[in-house]
Amino acid sequence: MRWLSFIVIFLLGGCELFGGGDDDPIESPAELTEFDATLTVRELWSIKVGDGAEALRLGLAPATDGARIFAGSHSGQAAAFDSRGGQSHWDVRTDLALAAGPSYGDGAVVFGTSDGELLALNAETGEERWVQEIGSEILAPPSIGSGVVVVRTVDGRLQGFSVIDGRELWSVEQTVPSLTMRGNTAPHVTGSVVVTGFDNGRLGAYEISSGDPRWEVAVATPTGRTELERLVDISAGLQVVGNDVYAVSYHGRAVGVALETGLLLWQQELSSHSGLGADWNSVYVTDEFSEVVALDRNRGTLRWRQNALRLRDVTAPTPYGNSIVVGDLEGYLHWLNPSDGNLLARVRAASQRIAAAPLVVGGNLFIQSDDGTVAAFTVVADE
Questions:
Q1: HSE (CB half, 13 Å, CA atoms) of 86?
Q2: What average pLDDT does this structure show over 87-105?
Q3: Would you say residue 358 has pLDDT above 60?
């Protein structure tokens, strides 16, 4: 499965991002140009976790309980740090190929692995609580709520497990197309409901206690003659703001959906495998070409498009104060104005790709790169 994902990514790059044939010109990632920064960004701390996982495109990203930052590496290291100063709370070696997470909830830190295991650690000590064999690779960070760990696997299952002892509580299964992308859409727990997207382009809401479906809606429908043309994965994170859910698929559309009923509120033709972020005003999407797009949250209409980062393998946007932030393939963080998309600031956060959307905690911003760098940043107020 892992090597198939590499092939899919390569083909997507060759066929869509860089031209469709031998005579098509090759388009390179946009070069970074100078601009007058209007924000001052300061690094607070930077720490290395594990040995990195270049090119594996894993679902590893920091998580938090508000005071601590939890992180892990594919080499099996898991660690907790003070969010303000980066001091170590604990650091353990799991001997598992961590591939997704962690997620924090109910006193547990939970990872998924490349070999189909779900691992829960004690958030206070890092000691192992339990390991559950799932039987399928886990690339999407788990989610935790109401005493249930919810995990999505690459074979189309959404499952709930007890956060106390790892017992399976329920399982939901969707049909998986013969060819999919290396998706890592984390289930999103809100109240008594968990919402997630699948590789067949469907978005669904389920009762977290039982897995019973509340609603399902098609975000995209496969079209085209080839398997590549028929890719419709919801392969990156979705967002819940207020009573609405926002999601985007590859070769499909961005949608706003009512959380309670699944009613489609709006749709906008758009393709993404990086994902989106949202605040009370806008939905921010990184499209398939790494152009950042802002849509009106209530109507789905286009507000602006920023192409300065085209083909730079940009993460989903994260709203942060009076800005939105994305990471890129060279380890840069870019601050954009949420009103018009103009660049506000840029810093080199790591030497390799920032794979997941930055995390905001207590006014600070946290990232994890492919080489295992976990770093914290803040915007300095003008004097």
A1: 16
A2: 95
A3: yes
The single-letter code of the amino acid at 101 is G
Half-sphere exposure of 133 toward its Cβ, with a 13 Å CA cutoff? Answer: 1
Assign 235 a pLDDT band (cuts: 50, 70, 90). Answer: low
Q: What is the mean pLDDT of the chain?
A: 88
> Which tokens belong to 16?
């869509």
How far is Cα 136 from Cα 114, in angstroms, rounded to an integer? 8
* Other beta carbons less than 10 A from residue 188's beta carbon: 21
Helix (H) or strand (E) holding 40: strand 40-48
Q: Between 1.10.3720.10, 1.20.1250.20, 1.40.20.10, 2.40.10.480, what CATH number should domain 32-54+314-383 receive?
A: 2.40.10.480
For the chain, what are the domain ranges?
Answer: 32-54+314-383
Instruction: Tokens for 68, please give them.
Output: 């601590």
What are the b/e assignments for 355-375, b being 16+ CB within 10 Å? bbbbbebeebbbbbbbbbbbb
Q: Hey, what amino acid is at 290?
A: S
